[in-house]
Amino acid sequence: MSLLYNFFKNNLPKHYRKSTPTDKRTLASALEIKYKEQEDFVSSVFLGLKVCFSLLAMVSLLKIGYSSKVRLTRLREIKNSYLYEKLRFDDLSSRFDDLISLEGEQRFMKDQDQMISRDIIRVIWR
Question: In this structure, are residues 17 and 9 in contact, taking their beta carbons and an 8 Å threshold?
Answer without folding.
Answer: yes
